[in-house]
What does this fold into?
Amino acid sequence: MKFVDSRFRETKEELKRQWNSKKPFRFLVVDDFLIPEKAEEILKDYPAVDQGEWDGTTYINQKNKFQQREFGSDSIFLQVFQELNSPDFLKDIEYITGIENLMPDEKLFGGGLHQSLAGAFLDVHVDYNIHPETKLHRRLNILIYMNKDWRDEYEGHLQLWDMEEKEMIGNIAPVFNRMAMFETNEISFHGHPKPLKTPQGVTRRSMAAYYYTASRPASEIVSEHNTIYVNTEGLKGKTKNLFSGLKALTERFFR
It folds into this structure.
């Protein structure tokens, strides 16, 4: 079953040009990424946070964010990720990004379905650089947003930052059927640090797939590290982290 709209492949020359035009790290935003009818099917089947096995652990730099990465054999989500991890799709994103020999993560470590509730945030960060199990180099993130009628006042935009210049270089609204793709390295700072202001019953939904290689350019190699967070909000960010830290401590105490 096909989910990615054929226009993605048909326009890959232009997408490659757009990708290479971005600095200091490369990224791409593609609207209407999935075949419209398939996107509607995915949205219809997208589970609420009280359905299935969701991990909603709170951390100092992350709150009210849930993840699910295991799906039944008849799940539409299993089929979506099978296509995103397929050789044909890998060839397309290798051509656009110039990153060769990409490998998917079949276990979707850190990926899969994401869903955030009111008050949720994820501070600006660079991702862990080495997969904890396979020890492959993390090179590329793809996020597909599944939020209809999203309003700017809800916050939740994906922010991309040039931390050397202390400048936001991307502010991407998580609107329905929009795909954001960006390289992961030591300068690809990203997140959605502003707490969600969604009304009751509205959540921020997305699908995430990450890609790896056996090696990477020597200029990008550093010691293995976990996610590295930065504060882009000053005192407001410190206060926000204080309360999320207390929530995380309370969760662990009662467990």
Notes: The chain has a mean pLDDT of 97. Residues 1 and 235 are 49 Å apart (CA to CA). The chain has one domain: 7-254. DSSP finds six helices and eleven strands in the chain.
